[in-house]
Design goal:
This is 2-amino-4-ketopentanoate thiolase. With 105 residues, this protein is an alpha+beta fold. It is built from two helices and six strands. It has one domain: SH3 type barrels (Roll), CATH 2.30.30. A hairpin with a 5-residue loop joins strand 5 and strand 6.
Length: 105
Amino acid sequence: MKAIKGQWVQIHAVILKPGERAPQVPEDTKKVPLEMRIKGYLLDEEAGIGDSVCIETASGRKVEGTLVAIEPEYTHNFGKHVPVLAEIDREFSKLMNSLKESERK
């Protein structure tokens, strides 16, 4: 599968190799590279997974890296429903509405 110019993609790049990490970072952190995964719009005419590409992020930055995903999915969520938070939301909304009503009088 190939991505075409303007398509939403994700790239990967190594920012710092293990030997380039700051001296104050923990020992286990020094042993691994500082990596970046970032999404944006493909600027190259066409590319496949594993190709070196340039993208433009939503904020307009141009970044280079290795193409790792084409139209990547969002895999995060906000977890399971928490009943107490829903109750807090309802109580807070009632309080805010009553304050607004009292300000109008």
